[in-house]
Write a structure and sequence with these properties.
The chain has helices at about 25-35, 50-60, 75-85, 110-140, 160-180, 195-205, 210-220, 230-240, and strands spanning about 15-20, 40-45, 60-65, 90-95, 140-145, 185-190, 250-255. The chain is of the alpha/beta class. It folds into two domains: about 15-190 and about 230-250, NAD(P)-binding Rossmann-like Domain (Rossmann fold); about 195-225, no CATH class. It has a seven-stranded parallel sheet, with helices on both faces. Helix 1 (about 25-35) packs across helix 8 and helix 6 (about 195-205) packs across helix 7. About 45% of the residues are buried. Mean pLDDT is about 95; it is low at about 1-10.
């Protein structure tokens, strides 16, 4: 019988979390640091990561801020090399960075908007994964978590965002098939409504206060509350743990009720 190598528990692994200056990414970064990982807090502007890094170090964790436009191949390559040099070889990757454009049907979506949204969520995940995979293969161990969304199942007002998030699911399953033999798992998380800058914008678009918007949305969710970044962080924590080594190629919807 194959057993989990419990010495993994004693190894301080290095995790990269993109889009970690705030919201879900910051929540995941803080949780992984509490789990004992050294965390590379990555976002577009290094200074924006200061709050996340400070929260981690204040709690006794290890973290450092790194700037990278994840849609820029050379920026990603340079950032990953710097992370490896400063924090150690990364064997955990959370592809969380993502942006959402204005609500628009396919006939109203510009090429520029399509490229921007898919560039961060999908192209960026590809660049990060390609750069980090050699470290995982060398260690014969790795964990990849891609942040998808319930919008992957279809979103008539955000075809660009839905396409990017659906693409991440196919990407995840392909990684699981390719990298499993190297001790690397790949899974996706599909958040539902989670308190974040993106959902705050959604409230503004509807002419509501964010508090009112949350109350209205909560009534449509079976558990009768909206999600918090910590809800997603709990799931990510499990998926990157040594104990999750037999879970790969899966999409876990964290949405307060059944989705698919």
């Amino acid at each position: 019988m194959t057993q989990i190598n419990m010495t993994d528990q004693a190894i301080r692994r290095t995790a990269i979390v993109t889009g970690a200056a705030r919201g879900i990414g910051a929540g995941v970064a803080r949780r992984l640091a509490r789990d004992g990982l050294a965390v590379a807090v990555v976002d577009l502007v290094e200074e924006d990561c200061a709050g996340t890094v400070a929260a981690i170090t204040r709690d006794g964790g290890t973290a450092a801020a790194f700037a990278a436009d994840v849609s820029d191949e050379s920026a990603v390559t340079a950032a990953v090399a710097r992370i490896a040099a400063e924090l150690g070889s990364p064997t955990v990757l959370i592809n969380n960075a993502g942006i959402g454009g204005p609500n628009a049907g396919v006939e109203e979506t510009s090429t520029q908007q399509w490229d921007a949204v898919t560039g961060v969520s999908l192209r960026g995940a590809f660049f990060l994964t390609r750069a980090v995979t050699p470290y995982m293969m060398a260690a014969n161990w790795g964990r990849i978590v891609n942040m998808s969304s319930i919008s992957a199942l279809g979103d008539s007002g955000r075809v660009d965002y839905a396409a990017a998030k659906a693409g991440l699911i196919g990407f995840t399953k392909s990684l699981a098939l390719r990298l499993g033999q190297h001790g690397v798992t790949a899974n996706a998380i599909g958040p539902g409504f989670v308190v974040s800058d993106m959902t705050r914008v959604g409230a503004q678009r509807r002419g509501r206060s964010f508090e009112e918007h949350q109350r209205i949305v909560a009534q449509t969710i079976p558990v009768r509350r909206v999600g918090q970044p910590e809800d997603i962080a709990h799931t990510a924590s499990y998926l990157v743990s040594p104990e999750a080594g037999f879970v790969s190629g899966q999409v876990i919807y964290v949405a307060g009720g059944p989705v698919d």
